[in-house]
Design goal:
The protein is mostly beta strands and 152 residues long. The chain folds into 2 domains: 3-70, no CATH class; 77-151, Beta Barrel (OB fold (Dihydrolipoamide Acetyltransferase, E2P)). It has 1 helix and 13 strands, in the order H-E-E-E-E-E-E-E-E-E-E-E-E-E. The strands form 3 sheets. It has a 5-stranded antiparallel β-sheet, with helices on one face. A 4-stranded antiparallel β-sheet has the order 6-13-11-8, with no helix packed on it. A 4-stranded antiparallel β-sheet has the order 10-9-7-12, with no helix packed on it. It is elongated and about 55 Å long.
Length: 152
């Protein structure tokens, strides 16, 4: 997304009565904009680490813009939550976790369970690799799109 497009979004948000908006594009770019009580638009752009560095754009009432860029040193494949629910790393309290840090997974392997509306949904890996980070704890509530695992 180009600067002119981002600037147009910020201007449109400033002129509207909306107080917050979240947009997710098919290419993985996410834009979240919120107004505080001072009608000061703030925009955060999140780009997946497999593309370009994350950029954060803050605009104050004097229309001064600051841009901060963070660069991920290592790139990971991400497994995200496909739904809202409760995360379980194992099939029962006494069972061994499906995966832990260091576990090799293949596409289609079960990596966890997410309970939603009393249904236990098995979540499968959509990539091959080694689990380098489990990003949530057993029993945590997860939202749609929450990062569950980082795979290398």
């Amino acid at each position: 997304m180009e600067y002119k497009q981002i600037k147009k979004l910020m201007d449109d948000m400033g002129d509207s009565k909306l107080t917050a908006i979240d947009i997710e594009f098919p290419d993985g770019i996410k834009i979240s904009m919120k107004k505080d009580s001072n009608v000061q638009p703030v925009e955060t752009i999140k780009v997946p680490t497999t593309q370009v560095p994350t950029a954060q754009v803050n605009v104050n009432t004097q229309n001064q813009t600051t841009v901060q860029t963070e660069v991920e040193e290592e790139e990971y494949k991400i497994i995200k939550s496909p739904m809202v629910g409760t995360f379980y790393s194992k099939s029962s309290p006494s069972a061994k976790p499906y995966v832990e840090v260091g576990t090799q997974v293949k596409k289609g392997d079960i990596v966890c369970i997410i309970e939603a509306m009393k249904l236990m949904n098995e979540i499968e890996a959509d990539v091959d690799g080694e689990v380098v980070e489990v990003c949530v704890n057993d029993g945590d509530t997860v939202d749609y799109g929450k990062i569950l695992f980082k795979i290398r």
